[in-house]
Design goal:
single chain; mainly alpha; Glutaredoxin; 2 domains; 4-stranded mixed β-sheet; 6% strand; Glutathione_S-Trfase; Glutathione_S-Trfase_N; Glutathione-S-Trfase_C_sf; transferase
Length: 229
């Protein structure tokens, strides 16, 4: 199995966490989506990461589709650790929250943070590179506080974000927070419930690979790899 990804794409990180929970170790292929590599566009014409490719199978593009594909092909093997509940209401709630983080939180916060602070470092002027836009960053950080508060509210009311067991929703939220945490943009002192929940997620063996990722010339925040932050 191959995973076409970017190390600091939140959706790619979500899929990496999913694959790790399933016990799968894909071969990673880094994609710089702004370069619009023809071979990658052949796999996913939208030019977005992530995409997985299995031998003798068509490519599977996009975080939501990949999550559904993995549940359909491997979910039953996880038994009581399945990342989607068996009951319809539980599945709806997991999907609702997963969509919230992968769409709403992404658009309002993590996408502009990654674009302005990471991608622009490598993009040419023609590709949209240049100095970070201060207004975009200010809005993204303000929105991140709102999403952190919502995560804290969920974590206070439930054992895990969507209910009594770990689910896709937890992995999605953690993937987005991990990118913002690397950049030092998460105000952890503002919500202890969100911080404690994230500490549990970050301590899982499946999270370790993400914590080894780094950006040349941009070291992570002090809390990024600290399990007791």
């Amino acid at each position: 199995m191959y995973l076409h990804h970017h190390p600091f794409c939140p959706h790619s990180r979500f899929v990496r966490l999913l694959l790790a929970e399933y016990g799968l170790e894909p071969e990673l292929v880094e994609e710089r989506v702004w370069e619009r590599r023809p071979g990658f566009l052949a796999l996913n014409p939208s030019g977005e990461t992530p995409v997985i490719v299995e031998e003798m199978a068509a490519s599977v593009p996009g975080a939501f589709i990949i999550a559904e594909y993995l549940d359909e092909t491997r979910g039953l093997a996880l038994g009581t650790h399945r990342l989607l509940p068996e009951d319809p209401a539980g599945r709806v709630e997991v999907r609702r929250l997963t969509q919230w983080f992968n769409e709403k939180m992404y658009v309002e916060s993590t996408e502009p943070l990654v674009r302005e602070r990471i991608h622009k470092r490598y993009m040419s002027r023609e590709q949209g590179g240049g100095s970070p836009d201060a207004t975009s960053l200010r809005m993204a950080r303000a929105n991140l506080r709102y999403h952190l508060k919502y995560i804290g509210w969920l974590a206070k009311a439930r054992k895990w974000l969507a209910g009594e067991r770990l689910s896709q929703a937890d992995l999605a939220a953690a993937a987005h927070l991990s990118v913002a945490d690397y950049l030092g943009d998460v105000p952890w002192d503002e919500d202890e419930h969100a911080r404690d929940w994230y500490a549990r997620i970050k301590s899982r063996p499946t999270f370790r690979a993400l914590l080894t990722e780094s950006i040349p010339g941009m070291p992570p925040s002090k809390t990024y790899a600290d399990l007791d932050f």
